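Human: Cast an eye over this sequence-structure pair and say how the chain folds.
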Amino acid sequence: MRPKRAATAIGEQRYGALLAEALPRVIESGRELDRAAALLEKLDFFRRELTAEERTLQKLLARLIKDYDDAHHALPKVAPKDALAILMGV
């Protein structure tokens, strides 16, 4: 488990500029999901440490993607022993 970072103040102007560029919004289609995933991937693979503003955008995009996946690609409710049997190919 990762240790939580202390809350860092973000620069509103810098964050606003990132938001204006990324235009994040509630994901309602596969195309929008792909766009959000590409933006998140870009942030995930920066070759430097992200700024506080970039980390905040990263968290927002991850939440939007998770919400869409939870609503549209929910895993079926399966008993733990049945899930294990499926994974083991039994």
Notes: The first helix runs from residue 12 to 22.
